[in-house]
Amino acid sequence: MTTNARSPQPESQRHDIADTLRAAGVAPRRVLELGQGRALAHWQNRKGLIHYERPSHHALSIYTQRGDKASRLVNGQAVSHGFPGAACLFPAGSRSSWLIDGPFEFFHLYFSDRDIARCAAETWDCEPEQVRLNELYHGNDPILAQSGQLLAQSDWQAAGQTLAMDHLSQWLLVQIVSRHSTVQQAAPEVTGQLSRRYRRLLEERIDGHLDQPLTLAGMAAWVNLSPYHFARLFRATFGCAPYQYVQEQRLIRAKAQLRHPANKITAIALACGFNDSSQFSRAFRKRYGLTPTAYREQAGIRG
Q1: How far apart are CA 299 and CA 286, in angstroms?
Q2: How far apart, in Å, do the first and last CA atoms of the chain sit?
């Protein structure tokens, strides 16, 4: 899962905070690996005493349901209490203790020094060594609170959602560094659109990689941009977010392949970048109002 920016860790030693929660008997409701050491986890806890001892990674926590029975302890005394929308930021190396005395749900975003360095350099053009994350416990940050609700309402297994969540995690990193770190520089203004050459390049490469996983960082690298700048310029150029464009192109290709009766639906799903036929069917129905099978029947296409 999450790796330390300075040295890769074995699978069993990653995500110290997640390991601590599991050791306390808490099971994640869902986990989504985003690549490059980042991951999202949805947790539900009810009771316990938890100590986070100098994790090797950074973690953002956003409470989405209740949390009033979650207290931070200092020298055995409660110094703050949670609430719906509360945000906590655990920099690598921090220490904290928590008393849980009632049910609540929360999300974690795990990330590394590498993510902070990249975000600072690409977004503010500043030296990563000058940026330090601030500890935050039960903070009231409306932007992060809204992000938590978006995470709660999203189906992480739906078609295209991995790319969407990757996009969201990149945006969250910008919010974390800009609002809860020592960075001083204002974000540069991003104006205009991608050049015609870059637009054609993206159209061709996305079309040539629709059967493969596509990430925001990977597509941004094709045109030598940071994920943050790429996402904004892509929307200005194409009129939608990168993950929305990719999803639409996959469905357009799949619809065309459905017109050939020899093509099996499962094979079409995989060839168009969907994990399986069920994911493909849900996405197709959401976009066109009927399942791939029903589409073929309506069009009179029979194998």
Answers
A1: 18
A2: 43
